[in-house]
Amino acid sequence: VPALAAGSAGVPAWLWASADVSTVGRTRFVNRLAIPPLATGRRDTDGARVYSLRAAAGTRRFKPGRPTRTWGFDNGHLGPTLRAMRGETVRIDVRNTLRETTTVHWHGMHLPARMDGGPHQPIPPGGAWSPTWRIDQPATTLWYHPHPHGATARHVYRGMAGLFIIDDPADRRLGLPARYGVDDIPVIVQDRKFDGDNQFDESRPLIGGVGLIGDTLLVNGTIGPYHDVTTERVRLRLLNASNARTHRFALSAGRTFTLIGTDGGLLPEPYETHTVQLTPGERAEVVVRLRPGERIVLRSMPPDLNVNFWNSRFEGGDDAFDVLELRAAPRLAPSAAPPAALAPPPRLAPFGPGRVDRRFKLSGHKINERRMGMDRIDFRIDRDRTEIWELRNTNGTPHTFHVHDTQFQVLSVNGAAPPPELRGWKDTVYARPGAPIRIAVRFRGYADPNHPYMYHCHLLYHEDQGMMGQFLVTEPGRSPGPPPLTQDGH
Ligand code: C2O
Ligand code: CU
């Protein structure tokens, strides 16, 4: 059990130690932002787009001194950006050259459960796995990462993660910045702690907390990164790939950016805002406008503190970080403003409170008082049936809620209609202590009586501890409805 700091309401000392780190205004942006390479891939004879990924150990020189031992795809750390068009069939040939079993999960992807890459699709050392499916969802920024039960946190922390971008040719008319690595920039944010030997520090106590919290940010694996901007607007595809830390992104000098997309696609309309808060696993696409010659810093500010002191510590305390410096050239190529309408809004159910079909209580590393059982199916649901779920965090620690295979619609947060940033498709949502959330979910198309999908907290330590459950999607009429709930849900 970690030592407790005296008089601190039982907050473990290691959390104190990690709190109140601030690099804001002190960062030397000395490294050009690494852009994950686009996977090249090839066309199969049957027309499928084929990519290969190799899970491997490697090393990476993040900072002066010894290189850091890492895991990753292809290149020792992180992985190439996979990219596919809506309507295309893809196949990913994954090989595992690690000395440990891993899996590769396609976070946010609509696909058959056998292809999902969760804990039931292990790839043993030396093994291979070739999932294939048809891309059938709106353009957006998804990601891939390992999901072996009990070891996800360690595998991701060592560096296994990459982006999976989905394109929709119909969106070209929107004129959004779309030149990868030029004005359409992946921004994978992860906090890490280095030991005295430059190695990732996995040693901090994990008992009772949120898991691995770092004091150094890696952005696409770069410390202190800058990006040279040559256009009036840039699109940033933000991914919080940290194990536990919530990042509340904001720009320097009180500048705003335009939020255009969230987990599952573009928002109905652009939203001009000062901040966007992402818990682990969540994504956001923002458009930043620059003036010639200026420098703007993207920052990760402390999460908004509409929670008590205890929670703010767990969410990363008062830590604030410089994330990325955008350096505008003296002359910028013109780019169009995002149009007033971006995508059709989710319409599974009307916004606001209403009936509830199923409840999920998040508490104490358990969901509905149970820990994950690999051999236990927690519920069954008919395909193509819309259900209203209520998520309730009852124990004061921050949690998130992620569901595989689908993008859901947030109907209400604490009884109120969702804020603009929660009005598009989502696959992961922050479950703030004491603020129930209602979502409308539907699992389209694929029924499979033998392979479950997962739902879980995306704080990876919690997930590994068993804050996860599994469900089957069945043919219509095969699943009993959800258990009856009384009016107030007890
Ligand atoms: Cu990003 Cu079940 O995970
Ligand atoms: Cu949790």
UniProtKB/TrEMBL annotation:
PROSITE patterns according to UniProt: MULTICOPPER_OXIDASE2 (PS00080), TAT (PS51318)
The protein's name in its UniProt record: Multicopper oxidase CueO
Q: Does the keyword Oxidoreductase apply?
A: yes
Please name the taxonomic classification of the source.
Bacteria, Bacillati, Actinomycetota, Actinomycetes, Streptosporangiales
The GO molecular function terms of this record are: copper ion binding; oxidoreductase activity
Entry-linked PANTHER family: BILIRUBIN OXIDASE, CUPREDOXIN SUPERFAMILY PROTEIN
Record's subunit section: Monomer.
Please report the stretch or stretches of sequence annotated as the Plastocyanin-like domain: 59-170, 212-290, 363-475
Q: Where is this region: Disordered?
A: 335-355, 474-490
Ranges annotated as spanning the membrane:
1-17
The enzyme's first-digit EC class, named in words, is: oxidoreductase
- State the family named in the UniProt similarity comment for this chain: Belongs to the multicopper oxidase family.
InterPro entries to which the protein is assigned, alphabetical? Cu-oxidase-like_N, Cu-oxidase_2nd, Cu-oxidase_C, Cu-oxidase_fam, Cu_oxidase_Cu_BS, Cupredoxin, TAT_signal
Keywords in alphabetical order, please. Answer: Membrane, Metal-binding, Oxidoreductase, Transmembrane, Transmembrane helix
* EC number of this enzyme: 1.16.3.4
Species in which this protein is naturally found: Actinomadura verrucosospora
Reaction(s) this enzyme catalyzes, per UniProt: 4 Cu(+) + O2 + 4 H(+) = 4 Cu(2+) + 2 H2O
